[in-house]
Amino acid sequence: MLYYAGWNTHPGYVWWLQYGPWHLGLAVGPSYYLYFRSLTNQTFRWRSYRWHLLPGLLQLVTYGAAALADWLLDYPAHQPATMGATSVPGPGATLLESLGRPLSMLGYGLLLGYSLRMLVDYQPYRRYLNDNFSNPERLRFSGLQQLLGLQLLGLTLSVVFTGLDAAFDFSTDVGWVAFALRGGLIYGLLVVGIESNYAAATTPLRFEADIDETSPAPTNLPWPEQADLPAPTNAPVAANVPVSDSETGPGQADKLATKGAIDKLTLPPELEPWRTRLLHLMDTQQLWLEPDLTLTELARQVGIHPVLLSKVINMGLGQNFNDFVNAYRVADAQRKLRDPRYAHYSLLGIALECGFSSKSTFTRAFKKLTGALPSEAMRVKL
User: Fold this and answer.
1) Which residues partner with 294 through β-bridges?
2) pLDDT band at 351 (very low <50, low <70, confident <90, very high)
């Protein structure tokens, strides 16, 4: 792009075209991965992961050393043959030219490897969101997934172009297509970055891909002040909905249908009073109406450590946090859809009244927990 902008007509600019850090392909893959890690954990520190950027740093040092060697040997920056070169390339420029294609292929390999690593880490990240947030849609970073897909498409095209270039020795005029594609990816990263950074900055994300829990459980367990509270009779925590074993664990693939069935779930005796207290507070205070309710906030309301509350919900109720809260919201929506006083409400209005943050989230949760769409339930009501 700089060549077409006229940089080839000025000796100093030609030097930057030849030795400038335009070819840091070895840093692209690691940068995507570290960006994902920084988005999903507000305690992320670059220093702990800087070794991932070592290949890109070595590539930068190689270009710098080549430029310094040619400068010390008094070799002027040479122009490619397609630009009408009249100077003899120095040993540094010759080395860079010979390393160009192998480094490009190595950069493609790193990008593919780190992209696959991101996809692997994304699955536990989704589980982390479901275990900690009642409205995790904006934290799924769908734009980042789309950008990654676009980057993999660019990778494929770049590999094809590099192979064809090796076979047919394309001129510089053809190479601008690959640079134009990368320019589009950069603009895409800007848009996705603004969107993702805002969501990450306003939410206490503490995801670690290498561990199962984000904080250790306390060793001393206080007893709830209201441990003798009666268990609620209308807790909608057991909708009869099949879910995947990956979300609830083996043996919990079917949500239980009655309060009596909930009692049959295995739960350590010291956590039993906390389950009773949790269900009582959900019944009496309608905590699910808070759209941005998190596991940490609910734990504060209950008076228990978040890690222990997660165990109460997972082991004692057979659900993750997201399904647990959404079950209350969906049950509330079903009541409102049958209530004539809400006949003039739209589906979005019902969703917002029940604690959902958007119609799409409401529809998805309703379908998952009831097997039907909200619009179908509305038609039955009519």
Assistant:
1) 133
2) very high
Tokens of 332: 């509330």
Q: pLDDT for 269-302, tens place per residue?
A: 888 889 989 999 998 999 999 988 999 999 999 9
Q: Which amino acid is at 15?
A: W
CA nearest to 19, candidates 97, 85, 98, 73: 97
Q: Tell me, what amino acid is at 5?
A: A
Distance CA 181, CA 172 (A): 15
pLDDT at 85 over 80: no
Q: Are 89 and 78 in contact (CB under 8 A)?
A: yes
Give 185-211 pLDDT, tens digit per residue.
777 777 777 878 877 777 888 888 776
Determine phi and psi for 270, rounding to 5 degrees. Answer: -70, -15
Please tell me the distance from the alpha carbon of residue 348 to that of residue 358, in angstroms, as a whole number: 7
pLDDT at 109 over 60: yes
Cα–Cα distances (Å) from 185 to 146, 147, 204, in that order, read: 11, 8, 28
Please, which contacts does 15-19 make with residues 24 or more away whose CB atoms are closer than 8 Å?
15/67, 15/77, 17/77, 18/67, 18/77, 18/78, 18/93, 18/96, 19/63, 19/64, 19/66, 19/67, 19/70, 19/77, 19/92, 19/93, 19/96
The position carrying tokens 């020795």 is 169
Domain boundaries, the chain: 7-201, 245-381
Given this model, what pLDDT does residue 250 score? Answer: 30
Residue-wise pLDDT tens digits, 120-130: 898 899 899 99
Residue type, 268: P
Domain 245-381 top-level CATH class: mainly alpha
d(CA 59, CA 234): 63
Predicted model pTM: 0.74
Query: Closest by alpha carbon to 68, among 85, 49, 40, 91?
Result: 91
Q: 10: burial class by Cβ within 10 Å (0-12, 13-18, 19+)?
A: exposed
